[in-house]
Every structure is written in C-alpha cells, then in structure tokens.
Amino acid sequence: MSKERKSTRAPDEESRLNRRTFLKGAAAAGAAAGVAMAAATKVAQAADAKPAQPEGEANMRGNAFISRPGSDFMVDVIKSLGIDYIAANPASSFRSLHESIVNYGGNRKPEVLTCMHAESSVAMAHGYAKAAGKPMAVLCHSSVGLQHASMAVYNAWVDRAPILMFAGNGVDAAKRRPGVEWTHCVQDPAALVRDFVKWDDQPGSLQHFAESTVRAYKMMMSPPQDPVLITCDIEMQEDPIHEEKLSIPKLSLSAPPQADERALREAAKMLVGASNPVIIADRCVRSQEGVDALVKLAETLQCPVVCNGSRMNFPGSHYLNLSENRAGLVREADVILMLEVQDPWGALHGMGEPWKDVRRVAKPGVKLIHITLADFLMKSNYQDFQRFQPADLAISGDAQTSIAPLTEAVRRSLSATRAAELEGKADGLKKRHRDMHERMKAAAALGWEASPVSTSRLCAELWNAIRNENYCLAVSDRIAWPKRLWPTTKYYNMMGGSGAAGTGYSAPGAVGVALANRDKGILTVTLQPDGDMCYAPGVLWTAAHHKIPILFLMYNNRGYAQEVMHLQRMAGLHRRDPKNAKVGTMIYDPEVDFGKLAQAFGVHGEGPISDPDKVGPALQRALKVVKSGAPALVDVVCQLR
Ligand SMILES: Cc1ncc(C[n+]2csc(CCOP(=O)(O)OP(=O)(O)O)c2C)c(N)n1
Ligand SMILES: [Mg+2]
C-alpha cells in the first residue's frame, strides 16, 4: 500500500481549483488544440473551395435572410385547424417551425407549451383532448423525441384520444449537419409509433404537408379517435417557399358512423323483452350529449348501467348506476348491451390468481349485444383488443351516436303494458342503488382515523373540500372511492385514466385536463400516486409556468403498491418470505419529499402529512392558491392498502 501524502492545505482549499493552474493547463491544452484546429480548417477550406454561387434567395443562405420559410406556411396550415396549443420539448429538428410559431404566428393559436419530456407533451395532449373535446398538437424531436414520447402515444391510442403529432426529421442525408443530426434523423421516424397511431405521413412538399395535415386531422376526429403523426422535413421547414400556388384544403369533419337501423331495431326488441337487462358502458361517451342520451335509454328501459370508468358515461348519482353491483348484475342478466367495451370477455368471465383458472360469471344463455367500432382499428402486434368474445348481435357503429336512435327504436317497440311493467321496476332499482351506496360508505369509513391515511379518508377529505364546486377529477381510475361515492352528474366530473396503464400518465395527463378546464370555470383536482409522479415531475414546472390551476393531492404510499402485492403473491406461491416483497418495489430510504419537489418547480407544496385531521386544512390552503390561477400540491402519506 502506498503511503498517503499529507496535505498542508485545508480540505476545502484542496478541492478548490486554482485559477493560475487552471489557466496554465488550459493554455497548454489550447496550444495542442490549436494545432489540430489549424489542420481541420485547412481541410474545411479545401472543401469550401466551390464555384461561386448563382444569385437568388435559395443560394444566399448565410449572407442574407429567408423572408418566408416553409415553416411559416406550416403554421398557416396548423392555424387553419383551430389548434390552441402545441406542446413541445424544444429541438433542432423543428427549430424553424418553432420559430415560425412564436414569431410569424405570434405564439397564439397555437401557443407553445414548454414541456420537460416528450412523454409529458403527449400525455398532456391526451388528457386535454378528453376534457376539451378537441385535440392539442405536439412537436417531437425526430427519433429520440418519438422514442421518449412513444409510451404516452400508446396510452392515448388505447384510450382512443386524438392527438395531432408532428415530428421534425431530416430526410436528405446530404443536408444533415455532421454529428448529432445524423444520430437523431432517421429514414422513417413514424416506424417507431406506427403500430399505435391511426395514420402517419412524411410529406414531400409543402402542398403535400397541407393536404396530409388536414387529412390527418379529419381521420383522427372520426371515431374511433386516435393519435396521428405528420413528419416535418427539416429542409422543407427551413427552405424559402418555392411554390407559387399553395393552398390549404378546407377541413370538413365526417359525421360519426351511426349503427345500422335494422340492427338497432333488433337490439331494441331484445332489450324490451329482457327480464334482467344490463348496460355496460366503457369508452362510449365523448361529451355531455352522450351522458344525457345514455340516461334516456336506461330510463326508458329501467335498465341498470355499469360504467367501466374509462369515461364518465353515466351519472353516479342516478339510481340506475349500479356499477358496484357489477358481478351480481352480470350473473343475473339475460341480455347485456355493451357500448364500446374494450374487454367484453373480461366482462363475462373472471380469471383466478395465480392459477389463471377461468370462471364464467354470466349465465350460459345470456344474449350479448355489442355496439363498437373495434373492428375498424385493430393492429396485430399491440393486442389491446383483448380475448375474443362472440356477440349474439354484433353492431359496428359509434356507440355515442347510436344511443339516441336505439332509444327511439326501444320506444317504438314498447307496448303500453310493457312500458308500465318497466316503470314498476323503478322502486326496486332505487333501493338497490341506495343499498349499494350505503355499503360503499360503510366500507369507506373503515380505518377512518388511521395514520398513515387511508385512501378512502383521503378521498372523503377531498370531496369535502370541493363539494360545492364545479369540479373535475382529472384522473379517476387509480383510486376507486370517488367513482363509488362522489355524486357525478357531468361528463367532465371524471376523466378516466391512461388507457394502457402505462405509468407516468397521471401527472401530465392531469395537467392537460386542467388546461382544458382553465377557461371553463371548472376546478381541476387530481389524486396523484407517488410512483407516477417520479417518472417526469418536470410537468409541475410546466403547470406553474403556464399558470395552469390544478390541485395535486398526493396519495403517497411510498411505493409501487401494486408491484408489492405481485411480489407478495409470488412469495406466497413459492412458500417464501413475503417481507422481501418490499425489495425493489418501495420508494423510501430516502423518502421523497413531494412538497419540496413542488416548491422546487415553483408550485405551492405542502406535506408530508400523515395525520388525517390535517388533510382538510391543507386542502383549503392549497385550493386558495388554485383558485388564484396556479397549481398546488399537498403530499399525504397513505396506507399501502
Ligand atoms: C411504464 C410502466 N412501467 C411499469 C409499470 C408497472 N406498474 C404497474 S402499477 C405500478 C406502480 C405505480 O406506482 P404508483 O404510481 O405509486 O401507484 P400505486 O401502485 O402505489 O398506487 C407499476 C410500476 C407500468 N404499468 N407501466
Ligand atoms: Mg405509490
């Protein structure tokens, strides 16, 4: 072992870099670099010894201006579609388009949203689309940006959310700047996400760009709605506009496909004749119009509704909403009407864990009617369509659009006697609804005083704070209590979830929802899991920077709770110690301080709070901030479940 040399200087002096030594070192390095530079310059000069350039704007790059780059026209196209926001993490592959948006376009319609991760840009656009009923645009950086964005695109695809995506890319290899532009530009950027976008194109001219972008918008908005992607060539953005006659096609959206009238009449007959019909609604409703239409159908039939929660299809306060009685209703049913249900097989069967034994819940003779557009948008590799379940009456059509004509067909096939019989069911159904509600309330009260806080108490405190508000719960699928107990009446009260359960959606998705709600006088709150927040917390800064009011109520169980449970299950199966299930699945030692994390991003942050009685007052303080137009976060330490 070599002997340590003792320093006579203090440790902090030791670690400080001496200016004179640094300069000497830098000068030496500089001298060496200077030799290399001189050689490189000679090579470059030789390469530059080209014939004199002919006159004209296109050949004057570097010593003049481009007064009208192609990207200005791209902005005209985007503006023609009425896009309000364009989310982006900045990048050189769309530098010209970015500059055109902020200067030529005045950074209005669309306005650039500064995002800290491409995945956040897309997830924000995903949440926004569901809440706004219109799409946001996203700019991605060729290969690397799309790689970051891809999981969020997949979530949006599964959740049927429209997003107008653009990706910068340099097609002409002879024009790519050496180095990074080569590692980022690719032959076919859309290949990265082609399996989970509805359509993509790589336009070869500005006219092509205009036509493809308008086409993409139209396709995206026709149900089933989904993301689309247009690649913007770097040269096309940066070159001056050469074409003399450029035109932007008029946007005309297609009427959504309504189900066949004959099939609807057949469905109506089956539903009217059923003793115990049930409606299961999944990605069915896109607006309040859809909620109101479904209420009319259910009331006409006095038929209980199970809402899967991916959209707020049916008011929670309505007596026909018996979602928490799902198993019993499916077991009793003789006719089931499914409306855009992603997993029809799963609605009729259960699968045991861990042996994967199949249990059929529905009666063998149950008649299944399914109105869906699933057949029109299936890819091979990504199998979100789930296990095959034959229907007795399979109807292709947009469920929301088809509800009103189905209700009409039901009315026409109802005799006065049958109508009176159905009316007679109402009291029994109202009682079932009341009983269901009481059962849920009793279950929620368990562990009321527990510390860390129970998720049911957390939700009760949140409800207490917003009960008199016009509210929206931005992500409503991570904790079941609000769906069980809050009296939803409006489409925007609950915005569903990520679609594909790709973690990392909740925080940015909620910010997108809040942005859509900002100008509508709707107060946005969200129940935010800790693991999800840690994927890309920079979205807190985006919310602060763009003054997006939202209340993040963290249910911080200091872990990836679901994964803890999976490991416990496996340990039980393998007869091993379940306590090791916390290895690799918990987020403590050190514990994340989300209040401070929020503060670091310029957001009002409080916590961690473990005492349930302290949650209410913290929410009041945070809501004051949110009502002033800014985001706020309250970190509550919760039970692992
Ligand atoms: C992209 C991605 N990676 C991993 C998973 C696996 N996964 C499922 S749930 C979960 C835990 C998420 O933790 P948190 O957001 O804190 O929610 P909690 O389970 O604690 O309620 C993980 C990691 C996933 N669904 N998606
Ligand atoms: Mg967690």
Description:
This protein is α/β, with parallel strands linked by helices and 641 residues long. Strand 1, helix 4 and strand 2 form a beta-alpha-beta unit. Helix 5 packs parallel to helix 6, helix 5 crosses helix 19 and helix 10 packs across helix 14. The longest helix is centred in the N-terminal third of the chain and has 30 residues. The two termini are 54 Å apart. The N terminus is likely disordered. It binds thiamine diphosphate and magnesium ion. The site of magnesium ion has 7 residues, from helix 20.
Largest sheet: 6 strands, parallel
Q: Bound compounds, please?
A: thiamine diphosphate, magnesium ion
The percent range for strand residues is 5-15%
The count of strands amounts to 18
Tell me the distance between the termini.
54 Å
Low-confidence stretches: 1-7, 27-60
Strands side by side in the biggest sheet: 2-1-3-4-6-5
* Mean residue pLDDT: 92
Q: What proportion of the residues is helical, as a percent range?
A: 40-55%
Overall form: globular
Q: What Rg do the Cα atoms give?
A: 29 Å
Number of helices: 24
Broad structural category: alpha/beta
